[in-house]
């Protein structure tokens, strides 16, 4: 971890655009907190912030555990202490070993891990960039010591990030990083009608399901990437980590080309029509259309009701080039505003079908497809994907606002993923306490890991399988490389 000078230097060089968008609120406080940094930054020789609170050892008799659980609750009720819960989370539940193997791409420590940037957000919005760790033990020790309220992952650099200051500026450069995608619900504000800003509900979460399906299919079928990890951001979005060797080595230009290929929605809020597709689609878009089309009726017309109010239906009508058609439909719906979204959509298709304007008639299929894309196709935050050095919130950290754990989302069950049922700091401790109360002390040789006593279990097991497949592939590639070099 950095010393005081390093912390101040890092804060001076902090680029708030380097973080993912789910963190806007937290980042907006950075500058206001800078003045206090010197007073608040923990030093190496200081005890951790919550050192006066002791967590029970990993195996204690049941009675003691219950007594201590009671003590925890008292502490929590005394100062509403989420720092305490976070400490328990890092001590008991964070999957250090698998996490290390994931970013290391091997069992024994490699540069993939030791040269990787980790950025920590400490209490009171203190940001410390360019942390790096030799191995899992050092990583664990420092996480448990500093209790970051947020961990961001950056690139693998040419030099260990913690030694950044000891080399010439040019010698310190990012060399590898997973290809990442950030999909944030705030980018759907102009089309969703149920919530806005940082809020989400089960209705609008469907947009994330559609986004995962479309982007994941394209990464698989168009680019052939095999190791794609989808993660809930903890609040209002999802991230994708593409971990194939080939993806990690992409330069910024290639990342940009992939994002351009995937992006369909273009233009700012002043532009009504953001998708302009013709009647014949690129095979990749034709496949995307098949994925998104089934959602248009249930999600856009029924659940979001985008044709239910004049304000919303005019957003749709404004994308039709013919003013006569727009006025006719607006009049029709104003006199019968209670007709269903499905019925209004049928009105719209009928009017376009009967249009005497040959151009409209000819273009109507393209307009229909473009509208389905505009309302259903994923909206990407391209900055996050294009810049190799961009930071992205780490899986398995806890969102500072919602207290939800950033858990992986299995692609096969993404349809059923419910962001509101994700484990939180307090639910995990409660589950753990309940397990201990029901099962008594665990003195067995093969002690059950603590995460297995909570609802975090399926998420960590899924992550373990993902990492196993990744390591197997990396080992296979290494063997092939070795046999090729033997032949020469
Ligand atoms: Zn909503």
UniProtKB/TrEMBL annotation:
This protein's name: DNA primase
Entry keywords, A to Z: DNA replication, DNA-directed RNA polymerase, Metal-binding, Nucleotidyltransferase, Primosome, Transcription, Transferase
Residue ranges, compositional bias (Polar residues): 38-54
Organism: Phycomyces blakesleeanus
UniProt-listed InterPro entries: DNA_primase_S, DNA_primase_ssu_euk/arc
Coiled coil ranges: none
Region (Disordered): 38-68
Taxonomy, superkingdom: Eukaryota
PANTHER family documented for this protein: DNA PRIMASE SMALL SUBUNIT
Similarity annotation: Belongs to the eukaryotic-type primase small subunit family.
SUPFAM superfamilies xref list: Prim-pol domain
EC number assigned by the record: 2.7.7.-
UniProt cross-references to Pfam families, sorted A to Z: DNA_primase_S
């Amino acid at each position: 971890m950095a010393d005081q000078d390093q912390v101040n230097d890092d804060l001076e060089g902090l680029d708030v655009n380097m973080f993912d968008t789910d963190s806007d609120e937290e980042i907006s406080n950075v500058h206001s907190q800078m003045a206090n940094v010197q007073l608040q930054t923990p030093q190496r020789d200081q005890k951790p912030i919550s050192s006066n609170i002791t967590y029970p050892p990993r195996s204690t008799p049941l009675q003691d555990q219950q007594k201590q659980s009671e003590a925890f609750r008292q502490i929590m009720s005394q100062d509403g202490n989420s720092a305490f819960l976070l400490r328990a989370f890092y001590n008991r539940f964070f999957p250090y070993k698998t996490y290390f193997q994931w970013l290391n791409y091997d069992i024994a420590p490699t540069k993939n891990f030791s040269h990787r940037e980790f950025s920590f957000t400490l209490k009171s919005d203190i940001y410390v960039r360019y942390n790096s760790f030799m191995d899992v033990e050092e990583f664990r020790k420092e996480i448990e010591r500093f209790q970051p309220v947020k961990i961001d992952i950056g690139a693998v650099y040419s030099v260990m990030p913690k030694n950044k200051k000891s080399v010439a500026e040019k010698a310190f450069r990012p060399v590898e990083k997973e290809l990442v995608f950030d999909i944030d619900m705030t980018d759907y504000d102009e089309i969703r009608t149920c919530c806005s800003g940082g809020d989400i509900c089960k209705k609008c979460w469907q947009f994330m399901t559609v986004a995962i399906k479309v982007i994941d299919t394209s990464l698989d079928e168009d680019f052939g990437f095999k190791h794609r990890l989808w993660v809930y951001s903890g609040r209002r979005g999802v991230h994708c980590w593409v971990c194939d060797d080939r993806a990690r080595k992409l330069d910024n230009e290639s990342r940009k080309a992939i994002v351009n290929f995937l992006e369909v929605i273009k233009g700012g809020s002043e532009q009504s029509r953001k998708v302009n597709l013709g009647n014949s689609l690129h095979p990749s878009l034709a496949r995307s259309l098949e994925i998104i089309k089934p959602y248009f009726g249930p999600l856009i017309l029924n659940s979001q009701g985008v044709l239910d109010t004049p304000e919303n239906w005019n957003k749709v009508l404004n994308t039709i080039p013919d003013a006569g058609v727009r006025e006719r439909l607006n009049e029709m719906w104003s006199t019968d505003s209670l007709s269903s979204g499905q019925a209004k959509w049928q009105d719209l298709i009928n009017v376009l079908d009967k249009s005497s304007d040959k151009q409209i008639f000819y273009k109507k299929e393209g307009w229909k497809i473009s509208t389905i894309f505009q309302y259903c196709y994923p909206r990407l935050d391209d900055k996050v994907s294009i810049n190799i050095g961009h930071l992205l919130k780490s899986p398995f950290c806890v969102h500072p606002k919602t207290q939800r754990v950033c858990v992986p989302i299995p692609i096969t069950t993404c349809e059923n993923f419910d962001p509101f049922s994700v484990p939180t700091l307090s639910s995990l401790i409660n589950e753990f306490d309940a397990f201990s109360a029901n099962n008594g002390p665990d003195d067995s040789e093969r002690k059950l890991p603590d995460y297995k006593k909570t609802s975090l279990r399926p998420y960590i097991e899924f992550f373990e399988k993902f990492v196993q497949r990744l390591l197997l592939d990396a080992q296979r590639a290494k063997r092939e490389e070795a046999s090729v070099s033997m032949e020469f």
